[in-house]
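Hey Z.,

So I finally got round to the adenosine-5'-diphosphate thing we talked about over coffee. Here's the setup:
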Amino acid sequence: ASRAGVLVKGSNYLEALSRVRTVVFDKTGTLTQGVFEVSAVHHNRLEEEKLVEYAALAESASSHPISKSLRRAYGREPDRRRVDAIQELSGLGVTARVDGVEVAAGNDKLMDRLGIAYVPCHKAGTIIHMAVNGEYAGHIVIADRIKPQSPEAIRALKEAGVRTTVMLTGDAARVADQVAEELGVDQTYSELLPAGKVEQLERLLARRSSRKETLAFVGDGINDAPVLRRADIGVAMGALGSDAAIEAADVVLMDDDPRKVAKAIRIARKCMRIVYQNISFAIGVKMLCLILGALGLANMWLAIFADVGVMILAVLNAIRALFVQK
Ligand code: ADP
Ligand code: MG
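And the result:
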């Protein structure tokens, strides 16, 4: 698994991986690239540049992919001395004081919470509403792209025997449904706050038909580290993922390729198959030799085979685990 770029933090997780029937994905940064491009800016009271500047400054302390994208759209390194009182509200957005002016940047729910009337947007994408001094100032539309490997990742999971694929996201339903349809994910739950993601995961865990089936959650750890912990197997993105995610996860994918989830499941299945073959083979041969010995039909050479021979055959069988087809 390491050679394939999958770091498994213990043999118990390999065993759990071999019994996965449900795989739950986070959207941003997991199935999508998490690199947003600004596709439109709709403003009413401020210049377009000013709106983007306020957004970038207010977002200057956040590590969310959205923040990074807004800073990139601004084009310069935001001057942190102009910003204070930054508050990041997970799953909602940020509020901060920029040049002494109150700025809020976030989704519909953030505007509702602040009691600010916003103008809905017809454009496809994630909408970042902006409020300046408690008044609505427009929105920035940003769009993310699906990772090119994601459709195949979902298909490969089905082939590997996973029954249900689920996507959880804090993003708007419209964006979530579009991504889900493009990828062929079975179930989608959108507009979830971090706590809502945990609740939804609990519900999915309770819905399993048997205790033997396991559920894996794949995420980047931004707003979903608690979910990573709660799932039977937490899988984190190693490159894009936060340190908290890599810490909380049981399996880490080195290069953020979601197809590696199916690969890890296949490796785990093959490994478990070999383990059970070796256990039954070794016990079977030894029992047979015991019986033959008791009947006076076994000699010393058979005893040596039952001991050393069986060990060598089991090791040779185990070497097969090094080869898992593509
Ligand atoms: P996902 O589940 O897709 O990874 P998150 O839970 O991280 O998404 O965020 C959900 C939504 O909350 C985002 O789509 C965005 O509207 C809003 N949001 C979260 N963090 C920020 C931020 N730093 N700035 C602006 N909006 C944010
Ligand atoms: Mg996320």
